[in-house]
Amino acid sequence: MKQMQKQIKLAKRPVGVPTIADFDFSKAPIKAPADDELLIRAVYISVDPYLRGRMQDTKSYVAPFKLDEVITSGMIGQVVESKSDRFSKGDVIIGNLGWKEYVVASEKAVQKIDPDLAPVTAHLSIIGMTGLTAYFGLLDIGQPKEGETVVVSGAAGAVGSTVGQIAKIKGTRVVGIAGTKAKCDYLLNELGFDAAINYKEEDVPSALETACPNGIDVYYDNVGGEISDAVFPLLNKFARIPVCGSISSYNNVKPDMGPRVQSALIKTSALMQGFTLGDYSERLQEGRTALATWLNEGRLKYEETITEGFDHILDAFLDLFKGANLGKQLVKVADFEK
Ligand code: NAP
């Protein structure tokens, strides 16, 4: 067993696009667990766009990271040593844990993964945080009805690709917006979207007009900015807009200004509602069961982009802002031990 381990802390609050210099890569001793604690080997670490928000010292739905503190995110790991009656050596767990090779966590901070429900990494993607975000935002706020048109931005990412497929299951016409031809081909040919728009190559307002001849009933917004500006003129009466993310502005230094949305909302009586998955904390099992059922029935597909190695966690995080990922971006930092 090693004595020392790698860890990653936030060293400075990034201004604009984060750089490696904003982080502190260091080594620390591996601690022993106390009573009711576990020593966990990190195996898969989730990198997510919302972590960018936690790097700023601003009020949000989740507290900012402190400077000189280890970054935390979703993690799947394996118990190396247990001082808890509820866990044994070898158990595979999930939790929101620090970017360290070995983490000591309270037994209350982690859950065992059910290996029969889906492959382990799916617990960080399609039946985990991103799949659940797609499920509740689309079905609870978007309320898609058969025959309606659903547009989703960030469509080839973890949340967006799930949103589009659930919208297809609900019998709607689905239009995805993504940043490369390969991603658009994936949406059309693999996931069964009805149309896909490459926002880096096409004129989004006119491409949307062509792709949505009956207007837009649901706009699942993952990106904000100019892509979302192009949607508002095409909204139908009583359209619904679940506002899930705004990744186009996460690295902005100045506020992002665009056309005001109020008159579009008034003219169409549309509902625009922000949300976080935390709003649905009482209903997670419902969502997980539905997603796992569709997955096992072959009605949902998912991709994961898996970067290898602890030293590449930040590269994988920054890749999210370059659109390098298809589906969920994860980092594999170790193998499971038998
Ligand atoms: P993701 O979509 O898998 O990855 C991010 C994607 O965003 C990239 O692949 C890239 O795809 C796109 N992107 C990056 N910069 C962009 C820009 N300037 N303009 C347009 N698109 C850009 O990430 P995810 O985890 O599924 O998250 C998607 C969104 O949902 C994010 O905004 C995230 O913050 C939000 N989210 C919210 C909640 C919640 O509880 N509300 C939970 C999870 C995620 P392209 O190649 O298409 O550009």
- CATH architecture call of the largest domain: 3-Layer(aba) Sandwich
Largest sheet: 7 strands, mixed
Name of the level-1 CATH class of the largest domain: Alpha Beta
- Please, what is the oligomeric state? single chain
Small molecules bound in the structure, each named once: NADP nicotinamide-adenine-dinucleotide phosphate
What spatial form do the alpha-carbon principal axes imply?
Answer: globular
CATH topology of the largest domain: Rossmann fold
State the helix count. Answer: 9
SSE sequence, one letter per element: EEEHEEEEHEHEHEHEHEHEHEHE
Description:
The protein has helices spanning 50-54, 129-142, 158-169, 181-189, 204-211, 225-229, 262-268, 284-296, 313-319, and strands spanning 4-10, 23-29, 37-46, 72-82, 92-98, 102-106, 110-112, 149-153, 173-178, 195-198, 216-220, 235-243, 271-274, 304-308, 328-332. By secondary structure, the protein is an alpha/beta fold. The protein folds into two domains: 4-125 and 303-332, Quinone Oxidoreductase, Chain A, domain 1 (Alpha-Beta Complex), CATH 3.90.180; 129-280 and 287-295, Rossmann fold, CATH 3.40.50.720. α2 (129-142) crosses α3. The protein is globular. The model has no long low-confidence stretch (mean pLDDT 97). It binds NADP nicotinamide-adenine-dinucleotide phosphate.
What would a concise description of this structure say?
The chain is an alpha/beta fold and 338 residues long. The protein has helices at 50-54, 129-142, 158-169, 181-189, 204-211, 225-229, 262-268, 284-296, 313-319, and strands at residues 4-10, 23-29, 37-46, 72-82, 92-98, 102-106, 110-112, 149-153, 173-178, 195-198, 216-220, 235-243, 271-274, 304-308, 328-332.
